[in-house]
Write a structure and sequence with these properties.
Helices cover about 65% and strands about 10% of the residues. It is built from 14 helices and four strands. Strands 1, 2, 3 and 4 form a four-stranded antiparallel beta sheet that branches. A hairpin with a 4-residue loop joins strand 2 and strand 3. It starts with a helix and ends with a helix.
């Protein structure tokens, strides 16, 4: 009796292990859930998903939600999107939301939006409930030179048809900032901008800034306007300072040239004095030659000396009288 009992126990354990493996590999529970949810999917189809390395729950659960919402989807489409790296659950939720809001959205377009890296469910929500994008403060200068800083709120709605390949929020913000700068820059005075801020919104809206983007601009509202610096006065001040430095540089150049000319004249005076001294040095030689040749006598020489002494004395007396005065 012991032998048959042991054999029966071994068979029971092996059978239990085999059944555990089968139920873990074959999602029988998921198949039962799908059957009672109205989703007709074969058990072998679920087994094939295992071999294709597709998690059956990632396909069946979204398919159940879509069927309950009245959306007809095929398992092949969901599997293809899953294998392409898409988020099947997010795509199905977006289709359900679009169907509820009566927005035309096909599975292929929703899958393409998801594979493009955009949140397709958020896009559908933005189509139903517009989003408000707040721009940073944009600085612009009016014609009178006063800086005006404007902050705007842009109400946009997602354009599902242009979500694939369309520009994002950053492009909308940049275009609105460009429109603000253009409008303020064309204003004759900053007071005109403060008196009529709606002119900014009207000008920006007429430019069609949402062209080529994934959004549709519904309205642009000016949230805040501040007055900044007097750019015109600052530019004039900077220009005057630059002109002053240029004038100073030119004056310094002229002064340097005058100093150079003065030094040149001093050098020429010294040169002339050297020539005078050189000429005076020839006088004794000439007198000696004249005495030697008998051109002048000794008395003539002494008479010349007396005249020179009288001249020096007169110079001394005249200089003393000038000092006393």
């Amino acid at each position: 009796m012991t032998g048959p009992l042991i054999s029966f126990g071994i068979i029971a354990i092996v059978g239990f292990l085999v059944l555990t493996f089968l139920f873990s590999f074959i999602p029988v529970g998921l198949w039962i859930t799908a059957f009672f949810s109205g989703v007709r999917i074969g058990l072998f189809t679920l087994i094939g998903m295992r071999f294709r390395r597709v998690a059956p729950s990632r396909i069946v659960n979204p398919l159940i939600k879509a069927t309950k919402a009245g959306i007809d989807l095929s398992t092949d489409s969901l599997e293809a999107h899953y294998l392409a790296g898409g988020n099947v659950n997010s795509v199905v939720d977006a289709l359900i939301a679009a169907h509820t809001a009566e927005i035309v959205l096909e599975f292929e377009r929703a899958a393409a939006i998801d594979l493009a890296g955009r949140d397709v469910l958020e896009a559908v929500r933005m189509s139903v409930k517009p989003k408000v994008i707040e721009t940073p403060k944009v600085a612009a200068v009016a014609k009178d030179g006063i800086e005006v800083m404007v902050k705007a709120r842009v109400t946009v709605r997602a354009n599902i048809e242009r979500l694939v390949g369309g520009a994002g929020e950053e492009t909308i913000i940049a275009r609105v900032g460009e429109g603000i700068v253009t409008t303020v820059g064309s204003s004759s005075s900053h007071k005109a901008v403060l008196e009529n801020p709606d002119s900014i919104s009207q000008t920006v809206l007429t430019k069609g800034l949402d062209a080529g983007s994934a959004f549709e601009i519904l309205s642009i509202d000016i949230a805040d306007i501040d007055i900044g610096r007097n750019i015109g006065a600052q530019l004039q001040t900077d220009q005057a300072e630059a002109d002053k430095r240029i004038a100073q540089a030119k004056a310094e150049e002229r002064r340097a040239m005058a100093v150079a000319n003065e030094q040149e004249m001093v050098a020429r005076v010294q040169e002339m004095r050297a020539k005078v001294v050189e000429a005076e040095a020839e006088v004794p030689k000439a007198m000696a030659y004249a005495l030697k040749e008998g051109k002048i006598g000794v008395m003539d020489y002494y008479n010349m000396k007396n005249v020179m002494a009288d001249t020096e004395m007169r110079k001394s007396i005249s200089s003393i009288s000038k000092d006393e005065e």
